[in-house]
Amino acid sequence: MVKKNSVFIVSLGIVLLLVGFGIHDPVFLTRASSALHQWIITTFGWFYLLSTFVFLVFSIALAFSRYGAIKLGRDFEKPQYSYFGWFSMLFAAGMGIGLIFWGVAEPVSHYMSPPGYIEGFSGEAAKFAMSRCFFHWGLHPWAVYIVMSLSIAYFSFRRGMPPLISSCFYPLLGEKIYGVVGLTIDILAVFATVFGIATSLGLGALQITSGLAFVFGIPDSFFVTVIVVCCVTVMFMISSMTGLDKGIQLLSKTNIMIAFVLLVFMLVAGPTAYIFNVFTSTLGDYFSSLLSMSLTSNPFQGYEWTKNWTLFYWAWWIAWAPFVGLFVASISRGRTIREFISGALMVPALLTFLWFSVFGGAALNLQINQGVNITAAVSNNVSTALFVLFSHYPMGSLLSFVAVLLLIVFFVTSADSATYVLAMMTSGGSRNPPAGKKIVWGLTVSATALILLMSGGLESLQRMSIAAALPLVVIMLLLVWCLLRGLMYELKESSKN
Amino acid sequence: MMLKNVLFPVKGNESTARLADMADFLKIFNTKTISLLWVGSKKKEKNTGFFEEVKGLFSDLGFETDFVQRSGAVADQIVQYASESGTDFVCFVYKRKSPLKRALLGDVVTDVIRLSNLPVFVYKRPFSFQKTRGIQTVMYATGLSDTDIKILGYLKHKNLKADELLLFHAGERAPDPVAEAKRVEMAYARLTELEQQCRGTFARIDKKEAVAVSITRAIVSQSRSSSVDFIIAGKSDRANALEKMIGSTAESLSHKSSCPVLIVPSIYEGFPGTALSQRREDEVCHG
């Protein structure tokens, strides 16, 4: 009981303190967070690369190992959610809004400004752009999430411990998980989640505002952003109150269906053969250069590019892992480790590849083959890239409207899952966290996003959340060890019996 | 007799004072015969004077001593000769080597522990051991495995005279508190079984259980804090990949302990069920 409230009080205190600091002196916060962020990415970038690769190898090896047959729950338990419900929630929590944001903007950005050893606006740059999008959004982020979620799912559903990151450390720390060390781990997870979700909420609100301005001509002003954040907050709070089985699942399924409709429409209405060519050749490039991409930081030429993109993403996925990990764990009860890993690794990655091929491929087709200067739109405002693409398609306005709707729904889904997870983390891992805590976290996250949007400290907050990735990556490497210990113990015991 | 014949590989530069200490210690095993083995290249001449001196020293202490000379890879020759000659155990006087030196040049003691199916005794001058009072505390560092049954024979042997036996088990923590409580309970139950089997041989028997990430470190630390004079430990033949790379607990214990160690393999020379294995087991069990 003491710990439940300790995590809640301390993490809320830290969040409020930093937000207060961001309001009081946003310039200093920006300078301090930039320096910290740059130092971490420059000094430990290689560590992120190596660790993420380790997580990928570990996940694949585990799926094929004899441990793959172990169930995340009691032996007789069946999965709580259908495959469709499970995949929808996985995808909505793990990627969702980011994919809508970057689906067009990222391939176009890489095409314009690849690392120094590739000439921009060339065929080589286009090839590079697509394969890097697959790389940044493909197997690696899911491997990061898998390590976190698998550990939490195993230790909570199989070993009967509360679904908290600190619980996974029992083989290493024993009873100390109930003390300061465990408390610190859980607070760090809350910290990364709050700042991660507040940043996403703030940046997402900006994109929705841009979308509304693009589609309906509503002024792209701070006041509209405030209204967007308020509306979204009300929606995700309502959804969060209904819990996993109703609101979150329903919204996630709605997301996937809208996204699927949009994807199919673009595939049919766009250059279908071109898109499939992009898909198959990029898939080939991706798999053939997976090892070199995984471990290359371009130290001789192009390190800045790697720092700004790959290492930023890796840090972001790691910072995002406590939230996604806890959420994915809570929806994966009753699945075997093999089923969990193969499902969480393959299906979202495949969907992501399709998404980038369709939207990125269509944008590059416009740029390369039809002479449309889509790169200018991306340079001008990254958040409008998708809407610019739609404007060159039939029913462009309708598509933009659907995209704004999709953004809002994805947004609400991410935010309500995050609120649920935050309440769970600060209630000692209760699967039915009190409504009061959901309200507190929901309001805190929205207020943080708004206040920092106003004061200009939002990106500083994002950098702070990414800074939390450094201790988190160490925590995750230890999680791999703890999980292996647990699985080895389990097999040893079952062979004795 | 369980440890009657010992094979003692010598390099020719050992201190005779330490050899005398070791020979004193061997008396507690009731060892009768010491076979000195020198392994060197054909070109290298042995230090004949030294061997004569050692032979004389051991004879004076009441041991029958013979001398054998071989050439080839040292650890291989020791293991091969031990297996051919019907030796009961192999004995070394420990000489400290830095981990770097061990890694680069190898270590005969480690190799013999790894290769041999015979018990290996590594002598170190124990901190608290005095010739006059002999061994006070023996620690059996048990993995609670099949090796227990082999080692019980040594612990219960009439020649092993010690006041106190410490039964110590260090294990890895179970993945959750319930399983951990069960693991500890089972460990104590097994230690209690061992205690009952050893009752009557020692004036006092203590049981201790510890959670450890490094089993060797836990054994060494417990042996120091309990002023143990002599450690007996088993050697498992089911080493995992990591142990194969960095060495087993038994191998590292021989380097890290601060008192003499007897490493008993889980299998004897000759597979279980063979006449040789049976003979050895009979000897161990009946003294």
List its salient traits.
heterodimer, A: 497 residues, mainly alpha, B: alpha/beta, ten-stranded mixed sheet, 10 strands, 22% strand, globular
Give a structural overview.
The complex is a heterodimer of chains A (497) and B (287). Chain A is mainly α. Chain A has helices at 2-24, 26-64, 83-94, 97-112, 123-137, 139-158, 170-173, 180-216, 222-242, 244-269, 272-288, 290-295, 303-330, 337-369, 374-380, 385-390, 396-425, 435-455, 458-467, 469-496. Chain B has 287 residues and is an alpha/beta fold. Helix content of chain B is 41%, strand content 22%. Chain B has eleven helices and ten strands. Chain B has helices spanning 16-26, 48-60, 74-85, 99-105, 108-115, 147-155, 177-198, 215-225, 241-246, 249-256, 275-286; strands at 5-9, 33-39, 64-70, 89-93, 120-123, 135-141, 162-171, 204-211, 230-235, 261-265. In chain B, strands 3-2-1-4-5-10-9-6-7-8 form a ten-stranded mixed sheet, sandwiched between helices. The relative contact order of chain B is 0.14. Residues 269-277 of chain B have low confidence and may be disordered. The interface between A and B is medium-sized, with 15 and 11 residues.
How much helix is in the residues of chain A?
Answer: over 70%
User: Gap between N and C termini of chain A, in Å?
Assistant: 36 Å
Largest interface, counted by CB within 8 Å of the partner chain's CB: A-B, 15 and 11 residues
**Distance N to C terminus of chain B:** 5 Å
- The tally of helices of chain B reads 11
| Structural category of chain B | alpha/beta
SSE order of chain A, as H and E?
HHHHHHHHHHHHHHHHHHHH
Unreliable runs of chain B: 269-277
Tertiary shape of chain B: globular
CA-based shape of chain A: globular
Strand content of chain B: 15-25%
In percent terms, what proportion of residues of chain A is strand?
A: under 5%
Low-confidence blocks of residues of chain A: none
Secondary-structure-derived class of chain A: mainly alpha
Task: Tell me the Rg of chain A in angstroms.
Answer: 22 Å
Q: How large is the count of helical segments of chain A?
A: 20
Q: Number of DSSP strands of chain A? A: 0
